[in-house]
Amino acid sequence: MTTLSKINKHLKKLGVEAEILPGKGYVYFAGPATSSWKETIVPGLPNVKNLTNEQGYDLFAEMTQLNAMGGR
Description:
Blueprint: H1 4-13, E1 19-22, E2 26-30, E3 41-43, H2 53-68
């Protein structure tokens, strides 16, 4: 089990200029690394308690790839 704070510290340690933030029934990414993204919201992920730090990074990487392809 982890927290948003721990995942965000892990992202920062890896040089990611973004953080994961909570919404109602979703999470989203914000920060300089996401400024050109069309999609920042990860629907259907109400919290990150079941994610590891690595899975948090993987989620960021997936969102980066999604946005590189033009979004959903």
